[in-house]
């Protein structure tokens, strides 16, 4: 898969030319280039310890992937932000992407779901293939418990289980593609509602 090298001045134009199928085109409006995010760590008061940890976990792998080529170090592929509403989780996520020079893809259920059978899974695959093309990329899933909640939940529709399985399959695939500088960053007010398999995939 061809990579699109990051450039603050050219990414918006290249982004218009990147998608090569209808499913990636549906995801494309959710992509925000780093230079258009407009939020930095300086805009976020306090949380100094959190910001310092994120610099090590997120920015180093996205900015210096060469440091992980030897296999001794593994880049972080998932971080979960949790806390009560109004604590700035979404703002922090955007600041992380900006500081790391990464594209920001804001994902919600409306981004993924379709009324047509089988298209939900294709949208999930398109999310990850598009993220690879505009990498480095942060895939941000706000209220992640609504998308990736417990699969044993009573009354859950089969389509939701398929979305979760497809998301986890593509997420796991990142470990075999070190050149795809992609991080899944999620936020929730209810971490205990997440599926256990999802929680295990968040390294922090």
What does this molecule look like?
It is a single chain. The radius of gyration is 16 Å and the shape is globular. The protein has 204 residues and is α/β, with parallel strands linked by helices. Helix 3 packs parallel to helix 4 and helix 6 (119-133) packs parallel to helix 8. It has helices at 11-17, 22-27, 48-63, 89-100, 109-112, 119-133, 144-147, 158-173, 196-201, and strands at residues 31-32, 78-82, 103-107, 137-141, 182-188. 42% of the residues lie in helices and 12% in strands. It has a single domain, classed as Rossmann fold (3-Layer(aba) Sandwich). Mean pLDDT is 80; it is low at 1-13. A 5-stranded mixed beta sheet has the order 1-3-4-5-2. It contains 9 helices and 5 strands; from the N terminus they run H-H-E-H-E-H-E-H-H-E-H-H-E-H. The longest helix has 16 residues, at 48-63. Keywords: ATP-binding, Hydrolase, Mitochondrion, Nucleotide-binding. It is found in: Mitochondrion. This is P-loop nucleoside triphosphate hydrolase superfamily protein. Residues 75-204 form the AAA+ ATPase domain. Pfam families: AAA (PF00004).
